[in-house]
Amino acid sequence: MRESILWATLGTGFTFLMTTLGASLVFFFKENVKENVQKIFLGFAAGVMIAASVWSLLIPAIEEAEEKGQIGWIPAAGGFILGVLFLLLLDNILPHLHPNTNRTEGVSASWRRTTLLVFAVTLHNIPEGMATGLAFALAAQHHNEPALFTSAFALAIGIGIQNFPEGAAIALPLRQEGMSRGRAFLCGSLSGIVEPIFGIMVTLVAYQIAAYMPWLLSFAAGAMLYVVVEELIPEAHLGEHSHQGTLGVMVGFLVMMILDVALG
Q1: pTM for this structure?
Q2: What is the rounded CA–CA span in Å between residue 33 and residue 40?
Q3: What's the pLDDT tens digit per position in 83-131?
């Protein structure tokens, strides 16, 4: 258990660090990220999460279930559905506001616009932390399979890469909203703190109910793909066809696929 928590902490700590580094750009740039660049970043994040959901979560979930003598697709499909429902619930409960819009989602709350913007990105980061934590928990449960560790590292690297522009995407708009650079950086950085929190939480759960690891892996995949379809891809296109957003998705998918296959 101790090893699982250690690896999950290191993996999710890296992704959190990348969010923090991205948020630090608020000290170097005065203007917000240009719309076309923002579309590329959002598309890239979507592509990474799609590939990670398949190669790092769903395929290992099916393989793990079959090793346990189960029918592979049942926990994969069941966990996937539960993950989608979990994010759907959070999406409808947690008050949040996406950049370039003025319509608040979730339950009604009299929070400041800047707080709602931070919560929108925080919602994205929850399944990413779960996915990274579970990947390392699975690797720790199979000491004799080093490929699982390299696959978990690949996932952490992929999510970390897309977290860098994500940190900037929350800190720079907060600065544009009138927040000081220091506070904008802090909020941008802390939007990623849920990754180690949820990563360690699911690792503890996975240790207690190791037999349900296939369900947990596919749960994280469903949660990630919900974010992709509900938030990232629509924002990458912003109501119109966008070659930048589409190419961003393709590049993100390709990068994550190569990382997982080459390192796994």
Answers
A1: 0.85
A2: 11
A3: 999 999 988 887 766 666 666 666 676 666 667 777 777 787 889 999 9
CA 21/CA 161 separation, integer angstroms: 11
The model's pLDDT over 251-260, given as tens digits with 9 standing for 90+, comes to: 999 999 998 8
Angle between helix 35-51 and helix 146-176 axes, rounded to 10 deg: 160
Span 35-72, pLDDT tens digits: 777 788 888 988 999 999 998 899 999 999 998 888 98
Token reading at 8: 């999950």
For the chain, state the CA radius of gyration. Answer: 18
Q: Are the C-beta atoms of 22 and 184 separated by less than 8 Å?
A: no
The type of residue at 78 is G
**Residue 96, strand partner residues:** 105
Question: For every residue of the chain, which 3-state class applies, written as one string?
Answer: CHHHHHHHHHHHHHHHHHHHHHHHHHHCCCCCCCHHHHHHHHHHHHHHHHHHHHHHHHHHHHHHHHHCCCCCHHHHHHHHHHHHHHHHHHHHHCCECCCCCCCCECCCCCCCHHHHHHHHHHHHHHHHHHHHHHHHHHHHHCCCCHHHHHHHHHHHHHHHHHHHHHHHHHHHHHHHCCCCHHHHHHHHHHCCCHHHHHHHHHHHHHHHCHHHHHHHHHHHHHHHHHHHHHHHHHHHHCCCCCHHHHHHHHHHHHHHHHHHHHHC
| Residue 77, pLDDT score | 96
Residue 241 burial class via C-beta count within 10 angstroms: exposed 0-12, middle 13-18, buried 19 and up:
exposed
Give 238's pLDDT tier (boundaries 50, 70, 90).
low
